Amino acid sequence: MNNVTWYRDTITKEELANLPSETFNGRIYVITTINDAEKAIAELRKQSIIGFDTETKPSHKKGDSHNISLIQLCANDFCFLFRVKNEPQILKLVLSILEDETILKIGLSLKDDFRGLSINDNFSPKNFIELQSYVKEFGIKDNGLSRIYANLFDKRISKKQRLSNWEADFLTNEQKNYAALDAWATRRIYIELENFKNSNNTI
Fold it and tell me: Which helix (H) or strand (E) holds 93?
């Protein structure tokens, strides 16, 4: 691996807190109907690389658990937020993308996401990159999305909405932006590091 880098290998809590917040400036679409889901999936099939994440309503009591409420799939300048709670047909369409071998999906802590989706019989995710493992190739020591992103781009991803109610009847603008940013950021990290690797002939 080339030793010349522009990014940190780790960042302190204090350094992270002092960075400006990142925002997602693309289009965000909340998908709640099968018709819209079909159109979104058709658009996603045109992409070669998409960012992936999920959101689940937090549990506040011991033994309490919830199914995944939201699945985010993002390209460079747009993001679809699929509301899959109690929507098996929409979920089925999304799973078809997650099982598509021709589309590369980028995520972080995928084991947790896959565990949440494993309630669906025969779910078989294909062509995923786990960022927590991938960034180690570049000497990055941090595991969390916000820290990894900050190491590369000197901006902070706010996690304030992480424990909000993802099963609410309507998502707030803050929830939408947070959800889109998390999925979009995984894609941006991967592409940035791939470009760096290729430009330095470090394959």
Answer: helix 88-98
Is the pLDDT at 203 greater than 60? The verdict is no
Q: Which residue has the tokens 């394959």?
A: 203
- Residues 6 or more apart whose CB falls under 8 angstroms from that of 62 comprise none
pTM exceeding the 0.85 threshold for the entire prediction: yes
Cα 75 from Cα 57, distance rounded (Å): 24
Tokens of 97: 């993308």
Looking up tokens 């089925």 gives 92
CATH superfamily of this structure's domain 13-199: Ribonuclease H-like superfamily/Ribonuclease H (3.30.420.10)
Q: How distant, in Å, are the alpha carbons of 26, 96, 111, 132, 157 from that of 192? A: 18, 27, 23, 15, 17
Per the structure block, which two tokens stand in for 187? 């894609």
